[in-house]
Amino acid sequence: MKENKDQSVDVNKVLMNKALSYLSKFSSTENKLKTILNSFSQKYLSSIKKDILENEIVFVIQKCKNFGYIDDEKFTKTKIENYINLGKSKKNIVFNLKNYGINDLIIEKSIEEYFNSQKDNGFKAAIIFIRKKNIGPFFKKSLEPNPDKLFNKCYDSLARAGFNFEISKKVLNIKSSFEAENILCNIDN
């Protein structure tokens, strides 16, 4: 019985060291850290009973949460900001956050807060998207046989990226790339 207790203390220390090593390099979520620790324990701690490992992993994750090393809400808010600056739509952001294993309530709350705090976030993301894709006012070719066809192609790209019709129409009605850049500068300030 005493031997098992000593093993669990060692397991705790090994898992905590692994968690700290991982978290020193990467920002993470609870789910991702759990996956990393499970993978590590299967590879290096396979001689220890599964129930002991599971309890120790839960304990290590809780300890990391208490110390503030992992916080899904902060992680979500940071990722939302990064995705907006990458030109991702609201739908795309939600999809990517769900892939991180973040709780739906945290995602919904953070998205609501972020998009309600600044009304132009979707518009900003759409302008960044069209700038990256060289469509709309950023389109480079001077000879396009059919402007309606070009508009439809641009709109289709925005729709596939997850932008709604109102934002797409508003972005595609910008006259020049200079005007679009000016709008981006004014949104950021």
Overview of the structural elements:
Helices cover 75% and strands 0% of the residues. The chain has 189 residues and is an all-alpha fold. The relative contact order is 0.09.
Q: Give start-end ranges of low-pLDDT stretches.
A: 1-9
Order of helices and strands: HHHHHHHHHH
Total of DSSP H or I helical runs spanning 4+ residues: 10
* Molecular shape: elongated
Strand content: under 5%
Distance from first to last alpha carbon: 64 Å
Largest sheet: none
Q: Roughly how much helix do the residues carry, as a percent range?
A: over 70%
Briefly summarize what is shown.
The protein has 189 residues and is mainly α. The protein contains ten helices and no strands. The longest helix is centred in the N-terminal third of the chain and has 24 residues, at 2-25.
